[in-house]
Amino acid sequence: MKSVNLYIPLLLLLFLAGACDTKKSDGASGTLSDDALLDTVQRRTFNYFWDGAEPNSGLARERIHMDGVYPENDQNVVTSGGSGFGIMAVLAGIHRGYVTREEGLARMERIVSFLETADRFHGAYPHWWYGDTGRVKPFGQKDNGGDLVETAFIMQALLAVHQYYAGGNPQEKALAARIDKLWREVDWNFYRQGDQNVLYWHWSPEYGWEMDFPVHGYNECLIMYILAAASPTHGVPAAVYHEGWAQNGAIVSPHKVEGIELHLRYQGTEAGPLFWAQYSFLGLDPNGLKDEYCPDYFGEMRNLTLVNRAYCIRNPKHYKGFGPDCWGLTASYSTDGYAAHSPNERDDRGVIAPTAALSSIVYTPEYSLQVMRHLYDMGDKVFGPYGFYDAFSETDNWYPQRYLAIDQGPIAVMIENYRSGLLWKLFMSHPDVQQGLRKLGFQLSSDSPISAS
Question: What does pTM read for this prediction?
C-alpha cells in the first residue's frame, strides 16, 4: 500500500510536466515578437504573388490549390483585381528586401508588358485573362468585357508603383512612364453609359450593357469613383460621385449593429463583409479622411470591423471555434462553393477567412494580432507555403488547402501599411489622386482641403 501511495504522486508529477511541455509546444507564436510574426506572415503571403505567379504575365493566378485539383481547368487564369493587390504586395516585398530592387523591377516590367498587350475594353481590363495569351476569360456568360471595379483595383496598385519608380534611375523612370500611359487610357467616362451620373460595373463588346449594374455605395467600390474623378484624360464630373455613388446623400444612414455605431448605408445589409473595409483602402489612406457623407472613414471602417468581431464573439449560431481569437467574415471559399459571409445570421455559414481579421490590422491591431497568433498556433492545418489558406470551418471539420489571390493580397498589403504606411504614402502622393480627392470634396481631419503635398 505504501508503494502505491508513492507511485500516485509520481504519476501526477509526470502528468503535470507533460502538460507544461505540451502547452509550450502548442504556443508556437509565443516565441515570436509581434514584428517577427508579422514578417513571417507577410513573407509567406508575398510568396503567393512571387513564386506562385503565372510565369508568362507575372500576374497573380486567380487561385492556387495545393491539391492540384482545378475543376474549371483554370490553373493559369490570372485575375486583374487580385493582381492589383498582388502588385502592391510585391512592392512591399521589394521594400522589405524579400527580393532585390532589380528583381522587383524586372517583375514589374514583365507585368506592364503583359498589361500593354492584354485585352482591354475602352481602356478597362476584364476580370480574368488567360495568362499565356492575354485574352479575356469570361467571368460569366455576359461578363466577357471591361470590369471597371477590377480595373480600379489594378490601377490603384499601378499608381503606387508609378510613384515608387518615378524618381528612380532611367530604367525605373521609363517604367513609370509606361504605367502613366496605361492609366491615361482608361475611359472612365465611357462607363457612365451615355453620360449618366453613375458608373456601370461592366461592358461587353458582345452584350453591351446587358449586365446592367450601376454602382451605388457603400460597398468595396469607393476607389473606382475616386480614380474616375482623378483621371487626367477621361475624368468624370463630381456629380457622378454625388449622384451615383452617394445617391444625393442617401448613402448616409446612421444606425447601430451589435451596439456599435455605423454612419453609412451598406448595400443589402446592415453591416457588410470585411472586404468592404479593405479593398478601397489598400492605397487610399483612411486616416483622417472625410467627406460630406462620412465624417471619419477610418473610424467607420474600424467600427465595421468591430461589428464583425462582436458578432463572431456573440456567435448566435453557436459555431465551433468562433470567439475573440477566431473571428472574421468576408467573401471567400465556403463549405458550398464561394460566399460573401457577413455578420448576420443569413450570411454566416460558420466559415472563418483569415484575410478578414488579418487585413483589418490597420483598424484593430491588437485584436487582429490575437487572431494571427491563434491561427499561427493552429499550424499547417491552416498555414501553408503561401500563407494562411483561404478559409476553414471548425464546425464542419473543413480545412481546404486552397488559396484565392483576392484574399491573399490584402493581408500582405495591410500588414505593410500597418508596419510602415508604404502603400498609403505612395498612392496618396500621386498628383492625379490628390486632384481627384479635392474634386470630390474630400478633406483631412484638420479641416484643410487635401493638398498636393
Answer: 0.92
